[in-house]
Design brief:
single chain; alpha+beta; 4-stranded mixed sheet; 4-stranded antiparallel sheet; binds flavin-adenine dinucleotide
């Protein structure tokens, strides 16, 4: 559940941590497009980024609902978990499909913060959301793969020691099914940088440390292949439910931030000799945002509960992400309306959060693709692609 009465001890602790990183901290980073290194270190030191790693590998071994509570509280406080949220769910690929040797080698060091696993390279410029058309290719050569190709929107690549990379090991046209022939490699960025991997930052409307990657004969040991060669797409899909649920929890946190800020401002700001929140034209959108957000939070909670009980949750995870990202976006727009001109002032944090929460209707999966999934997989409508 992500409604704000669950995991109260975790929520309180995360709120205390976030209070050390006020709006002025995020405003400075946003202005400079800088990475929140101190914030990520604090989260790591207090163990919040490793809540999903089992105790046997040095983590807390908590359920997804706990991770969702951590991210929701970060966003509710006005912060942004996007600088490090991938570490929570990306390690799941190693945990579920990696060999015991890989788990022993990486997970304890990820849990302790010695190694950062922040980067997740799937999207390519020419394939877009049609992932089976990726062309970045890993050619086997003895005990190593030689990787060539290009990725785009690989976030946090400059702040990560490891990357989970989806690439082709068999061309699409030679594979039995389009989703076959893709593999997951763990790329050690520290070795790859300067040895064929070029990272080019992309400046965006929000502070997201996202990049473009160019692979030019980058060597990766075969020991870094996760699971079986050619089955990588399935492993990545497996991890996407956790990703969607956690990002939906961030949207719930964003929505709560906007609603709390708008409510407080509408009570305090007086125009025409009374609080603006006394006008139904101002209070109804705030109430509507709350109603929509609670409905979305219910779906996030349902998806997370299914996930934690190891039941299928692909549809619920997708629906949770759609509802939560739309509810947070409605709340963001409402919050700007409520603040009048001050909604646009940097020091109020609202315009920044407005830009930040917009991302989640596009990434990690656009709303259209979720609607297409529901239309064809749930409702049985004819496929359009
Ligand atoms: C800031 C940021 C960070 C990101 N971080 C990462 C990351 O760390 N790792 C990573 O791998 N990716 C990352 N992404 C990529 C993100 O997941 C993609 O941008 C997203 O999935 C959309 O893909 P695209 O940009 O190629 O859009 P396109 O595939 O070009 O699609 C463009 C639009 O057309 C729509 N569309 C396409 N086909 C159809 C169809 N058949 N029916 C209806 N609508 C359709 C889409 O919904 C979309 O709105 C990030 C993106 C951003 C902007």
């Amino acid at each position: 559940m992500t409604s704000d009465d669950t995991h109260q001890d975790i929520r309180d602790a995360v709120r205390r941590l976030c209070a050390r990183f006020p709006g002025s901290y995020w405003q400075t980073l946003d202005r400079e497009r800088a990475y929140p290194a101190e914030f990520v270190k604090a989260l790591t030191d207090e163990g919040w980024l490793s809540v999903l790693i089992p105790e046997a590998y040095g983590g807390a071994g908590l359920p997804l609902t706990a991770a969702a509570a951590v991210l929701e509280e970060i966003h509710r406080s006005g912060g942004n978990g996007a600088a490090c949220h991938a570490q929570m769910y990306t390690m799941g690929v190693v945990l579920r499909h990696g060999s015991e040797a890989q788990k022993q080698a990486w997970l304890p060091r990820i849990a302790s913060g010695e190694i950062r696993l922040q980067a997740f390279g799937v999207t390519e410029p020419s394939s877009g959301v049609d992932t089976t058309r990726i062309t970045t290719f890993a050619r086997r050569d003895g005990d190593r793969y030689v990787v060539n190709g290009q990725k785009i929107w690989t976030s946090r690549a400059e702040h990560s020691d490891l990357m989970v990379l989806l690439c082709r090991t068999t061309p699409r046209e030679e594979s039995t099914r389009p989703s076959d022939g893709m593999s997951v490699l763990l790329v050690d960025m520290r070795q790859a940088k300067g040895a064929g991997l070029t990272i080019r930052p992309i400046r965006t409307m929000l502070n997201h440390a996202t990049t473009e990657l160019f692979f030019d004969d980058v060597e990766v040991p075969v020991a870094n292949l996760v699971g079986e060669e050619g089955k990588g797409f399935r492993y990545i899909l497996d991890g996407m439910n956790a990703e969607r649920i956690l990002i939906a929890a961030e949207c719930i946190g964003d929505g709560r931030f906007f609603i709390e800020r708008a409510s407080a401002y509408a009570k305090a700001r007086e125009v025409f000799g009374r609080p603006i929140g006394q006008n139904q034209g101002v209070q109804f959108p705030i109430a509507r945002a709350h109603v929509q957000l609670e409905a979305a939070a219910g779906m996030v909670a349902r998806a997370a509960a299914l996930y934690d009980s190891a039941q299928p949750c692909g549809t619920e995870a997708n629906m949770a992400k759609l509802l939560a990202s739309e509810a947070s976006w409605f709340a963001a727009d409402m919050c700007i309306h409520t603040h009048g001109g001050f909604g646009f002032a940097e020091e109020y944090d609202i315009e920044r959060k407005f830009r930040e929460t917009r991302l989640y209707q596009t990434a990690p999966i656009p709303t259209n693709l979720i609607l297409s999934h529901v239309a064809t997989h749930v409702l049985g409508l004819p496929k359009s692609f």
